[in-house]
Amino acid sequence: MSVSSYVQRDQPEGVPPLELTGERTLPDVPEENYWYRRHLVVYEWIATRVRGLRVIDMACGEGYGSNVLASGAASVVGVDANPDAHQHARLRYQIPTRPNLRFARDLVETFPEPADAVVFLQTIEHVQDAPAVLTHFRSLVGRGGVAFISTPNVLTLAPKGAERSDNPWHVHEYRAGEFEDLCKGTFGSVEMYGLFYARKLRVHELAIKCGWDAIHKRLRLTKRFYEWFTPAISARDFALRPAGACEIDRALDFIAVCRP
Q1: Which residues of 168-194 are buried (b: 16+ CB within 10 A; e: fewer)?
Q2: Fewer beta carbons below 10 Å: N end or C end of the chain?
Q3: How far is the C-alpha of 237 from the C-alpha of 196, rounded, in Å?
Q4: What number of helices (H) and strands (E) belong to the chain?
Q5: Domain assignment of residue 78, given as a range
């Protein structure tokens, strides 16, 4: 079954569900839960660091991350150019009980409003001119602001021995040093973090190294096991660590905290 066969479940009345295309991550799709939680944990981590700030969530997609950021930020605007994603986010999350959150349909390269923080997660690998995008973000946050940029690690995303993954939406996939150099080309200060497995995902990772893939196939447990396991993954099954305290080249994703 292709990713385009999956559609969000149980949306609020009047909110059109989005179809999973592989271009963006969606909540409310059980088969997508691994990727949703992998992204959510980073949004939750950033949310604790932008309390009281004016925040732009660039390429916000479905809008769930903007909603998380708005739990403590002074204001959040979620920016996305896709009309379906924008309409869904506006109808689902821009509600009277959250007046500090709104959504704008625009390009990340041209959205003009200044802010204290820009968040740009799992998207820089999609853009043609990454330095130009980062330069624009720096102009928006000014001297005292911060930008949070994340991207997958090509060394753990791509199949072993391959130069890149098979994701058709990715223009360029980064190694740690290359990504850090990209950010340092625009920002004066860059702190690097890595995202790693924890709890049951760490146990699952170790089980695979011990031959679990062969066992579940032989016992014909694959479908039943992963129908249970994938929806059970939570944000707590991932851990963020600073580059100095981890083997950054083994990370799933890189997160750069960038200041002018």
Answers
A1: eebebbbebeebbebbeebbeebebbb
A2: N
A3: 9
A4: 9, 8
A5: 3-259
